[in-house]
C-alpha cells in the first residue's frame, strides 16, 4: 500500500516511516525540514502543509491510499509563534483534508493530543468532555479534530485519530511541553544531568514511542464498522516527574536530576489532565499499551546508549 506521511522528519515521523516500511508499505515521506538519513531521496518530498496548492499537487501526483498527518508545531514552541502555529496546524490540516478529498485518498490518520483539554476536566479525562485548551497548539488540535469529524459526516471520509500523551523515545523532540520527561532520559544518559522545567509533582499522561506507533497503525487497520467515533483517547502511564527521575536514577547511577519550574511551561502542564480514560479505544479496536514506566526505562536506556555510541 502507498502511504504518505506529513511531518516525517519529526520525533514520531522517523520511527513511523521505518515501521510502515517494515510492514511492506511504500512510504512517501514529506516535511519542511531536512531529509532524515533513514529515508531514501526518491521517497522524500519537501512539503509545507500550509501551502494548499503544493499539498494538492503532491497528493494528486503521488496518489497515496493512506495519509498519516503528523506535521505540527508543538505546544511550547507554538506559544512563541502562535500565528505560524495556526497556519501550520490549523490551515495545514484543512489543506491536507482538502487534498485528500481532491486526490481521493482513502484514509487520513490524525495525531491529536492531550493538549485539546484545559484545566478542570474529570480525572481520568474521558473522550467526551469540554475542550478548553489554553495553548494555540491545543486550539488547533481541537480544530483539526472537528474538521476531520465534519469531513467524515459530510462526505463519509475515513478520518481517524488518536489523542497522544507526551511521547518518550530516544529521538529528540522539537518544542513540546512534555519534553522534560524525555530529556531526563536522553540528557541523563548523554550528559549525566538534567534540570526539568517543571515541579517534581507534575503529573501528565505519557507514553513510550513503540506503543504510540502501534496505536496509530492498529487504529488505521481496524475495521471501520467497529469504530464508534473518529478520534480516541489513548493512555499508558501517568507518573509524577519525581517518579520518572527515580526510575532514571535507578538505571543510570550518579545521574543528577533536578527541578526548576518555568512558570509558562508549568502552567501549560498544569492545564493538562493527570490521566486519560481510554475505555472507548480499548473496546472499539482493542487498544492496550505494552509498556509501563519501568518497562520503558529498561528498554529505552540501552537504546539511548547505543545511539550515543553510533554518533561518537
Ligand atoms: C507537547 O508537549 O506539545 C506534545 C503533546 C503533549 O502533544 N508532546
Output the keywords.
11 helices; single chain; globular; two-stranded parallel ribbon; UDP-galactose 4-epimerase, domain 1; 11 strands; 2 domains; binds 2-amino-3-ketobutyric acid; Rossmann fold
Question: What does the model show?
Answer:
This protein has 312 residues and is an alpha/beta fold. It folds into two domains: 2-165 and 207-233, Rossmann fold (3-Layer(aba) Sandwich), CATH 3.40.50.720; 168-204 and 236-272 and 292-310, UDP-galactose 4-epimerase, domain 1 (Alpha-Beta Complex), CATH 3.90.25. It has helices at 11-22, 52-62, 75-80, 82-102, 136-155, 179-190, 209-221, 241-251, 263-271, 279-285, 293-311; strands at 2-6, 26-31, 44-46, 66-69, 107-113, 158-164, 166-168, 193-196, 206-208, 231-233, 256-259. A seven-stranded parallel β-sheet has the order 3-2-1-4-5-6-10, sandwiched between helices. Strand 5 (107-113), helix 5 (136-155) and strand 6 form a beta-alpha-beta unit. Helix 1 (11-22) crosses helix 7 (209-221), helix 6 packs parallel to helix 8 (241-251) and helix 6 crosses helix 11 (293-311). The mean pLDDT is 96. Residues 74-75, 113-115, 137, 164, 166-167, 176-178 line the site of 2-amino-3-ketobutyric acid.
Short summary:
The protein has 312 residues and is an alpha/beta fold. The protein is built from 11 helices and 11 strands. Helix 1 (11-22) crosses helix 7 (209-221) and helix 6 (179-190) runs parallel beside helix 8 (241-251).
